[in-house]
Amino acid sequence: MPEHTQTGHSPDEDPVVRRRRQVERWTLLANRVGYLLLALAIALFVIAFAIGFSPAMATLVIVSLVLSFLLLAPSIVLGYAVKAADREDAERGL
């Protein structure tokens, strides 16, 4: 017999849990892309440092950094929120 939450839905059909899993997937993707962009910015900075900074290299470094921060800041916060909600559900036995 499927276990039911307070909303009367099984955990697999619960719209809140389903939405939480969707947010978790998007935050994981945003984390991966954000850290990849951060690594790219660091690599570009090292290359620019070795061969000499040009306006194009400086622009690429800054754009990579800004994009990584725009992805990482909300995805890290949302990732912690999903984990906290899961932990709270587990503590309440849901």
What layout of secondary structure does this protein have?
Elements: H1 15-51, H2 55-92
Helix pairs in contact: 1-2
Query: What radius of gyration results from the CA coordinates?
Result: 20 Å
Low-confidence parts lasting 5 or more residues at pLDDT below 50? none
Please report the number of helical segments.
Answer: 2
The general outline is rod-shaped
Number of strands: 0
* N/C terminus separation: 15 Å
Summing up helix and strand content along with how strands pair, one would put the structural category as mainly alpha
Mean pLDDT: 88
Sheet with the most strands, sense and barrel status? none
- Strand and helix order: HH
Helix content: over 70%
**How much of the polypeptide forms β-strand, as a percent range?**
under 5%
Fold and architecture overview:
10% of the residues are buried. The protein is 80% helix and 0% strand. It contains two helices and no strands. With 94 residues, it is mainly alpha-helical.
Short description:
The protein has 94 residues and is mainly α. The protein has 2 helices and no strands.
Key terms for this structure?
2 helices, mainly alpha, rod-shaped, 94 residues, single chain, 80% helix
